[in-house]
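All the exercises in this workshop are built on plain-text protein records. There is nothing in a record beyond a sequence line and a structure line. A learned vocabulary of local backbone shapes supplies the integers on the structure line. The question running through the whole workshop is how a given chain folds. Here is such a record, shown just as it appears in the course material:

***
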Amino acid sequence: MNFRAFGFSIVGLFAAISATAAADSPPSYQSDPDTYKVIFEDQNFRVIAATW
């Protein structure tokens, strides 16, 4: 295996791990309610106000 193929394999592994971790974590508007407030929500979209 050459170095380039090894590098692409490592990048793919990290992308898969980060995608799995992101799927398990709650959305930012739920995990930080002091910063994010849901203004409106329906089945098609959600409007969020952020105060930093």
Observations:
- The chain is about 50% helix and 20% strand.
- The mean pLDDT is 74.
- Helices lie at 3-24, 28-31.
